[in-house]
Amino acid sequence: LQRDLLPSQGTGASRTTLSDVVQQETWALVQRAEVAPVDVAALVRETTALMRPVAEAHGVDLRDGSAGREDSEPGHSQLVNADRTIFRQILISILSYALRQVHCGVVTVDARTHHGVTVEISAEPWREPPATDPNWLAARQLVVSQKGRVDCAVTGQRWTASIHVPAVRDYGVLVIDDNEDSIEVFRRHVMGHPYTIHVAHDGAEAIRLVPQLQPDVITLDIMMPGLDGWETLQRLRALPESRATPILICSVLNEPHLAAMLDATAVLPKPFTQGALLACLERLTRRGRPLPPDR
Predict the structure, then answer these.
(1) CA dihedral sign, ordered 31, 32, 38, 44
(2) Mind listing the domains of the chain with CATH numbers?
(3) Secondary structure of 45-80 as H, E, C letters
(4) Of these four, 89, 94, 237, 293, which has the most CB atoms within 10 Å of its CB?
(5) pLDDT in tens, 209-222
(6) Is 83 exposed, middle or buried (0-12, 13-18, 19+ CB in 10 A)?
(7) For residue 37, is the peptide bond before it cis, meaning its omega torsion is within 30 degrees of 0?
(8) Rg of the chain (C-alpha set)
């Protein structure tokens, strides 16, 4: 490899620059990218823990600036569509770059949700960095590959890099179920995925909530007091706000033919696995067209 980087001796030969090498390496990584929802808050926690021994070796205090904040705690996701390996490498590269420019100082990593997801890495006291640094060059190119941008600024002795990436849109899911255990299963199964759970404990409450929430998907239990699931389904289809909304029947009663006759979109019998639920939600929210009831 070192021989390849040496300038050729012939007349008019060009030299391979550091920027060229970094571009080749990052391009090779991007070509193998697998895009999926990535929880940035969780990835920041993992990467900060990974890099903390490196920071200690540099005499630097590496801090998680979002620790203790509600929106960054486990169970509160900050999702972006990205390749997880690439996003992790972005964080590692920028942290490595920052740690080399700070002596006996503080480096802080913070992730916030505001018009997308922003990861801010600050370092102080900051010293003048080299003209080129492979970690910084790689990080900037990788951020662009993830449809994001990175900005940096120096204020006094404090350096700040901000990585901005578009957030994944959360889909609203209205769960109509009178059983709290079932509701908890829905919440647990979608944790870390781009769905926000809203709850109606009976059909009457659902009828009131739908015009306000206008959910992307409705899941509907059948055996409920008051309005049962079948009557609730009919009333939902009569509402302008839910006439075309995908409605997923989730019940121990597996009646796909009746569900189809009453214009349900799909049926997922209880008990169901996390994979089965996520597959249904994926199809209903991403395809934008109704599915025949599952048999």
Answers:
(1) negative
(2) 2-165 (3.30.565.10), 171-286 (3.40.50.2300)
(3) HHHHHHHHHHHHHCCCEEEECCCCCHHHCCCCCCEE
(4) 94
(5) 999 999 999 999 99
(6) buried
(7) no
(8) 25
- Is the pLDDT assigned to residue 198 strictly greater than 90? yes
Lowest mean pLDDT among 123-132, 143-152, 268-277, 278-287: 123-132
- Give residue-wise pLDDT tens across range 234-276: 999 999 999 999 999 999 988 999 999 999 999 999 999 999 9
Q: Which two tokens stand for residue 2?
A: 């070192």
Nearest to 82 by CA among 151, 143, 163, 140: 143
Q: What is the 3-state secondary structure (H, E, C) of the chain?
A: CHHHHCCCCCCCCCCCCHHHHHHHHHHHHHHCCCCEEEEHHHHHHHHHHHHHHHHHHCCCEEEECCCCCHHHCCCCCCEEEECHHHHHHHHHHHHHHHHHCCCCCEEEEEEEECCCEEEEEEEECCCCCCCCCHHHHHHHHHHHHCCCEEEEEEECCEEEEEEEECECCCEEEEEECCCHHHHHHHHHHHCCCCEEEEEECCHHHHHHHHHHHCCCEEEECCCCCCCCHHHHHHHHHHCHHHCCCCEEECCCCCCHHHHHHCCCCEECCCCCCHHHHHHHHHHHHHCCCCCCCCC
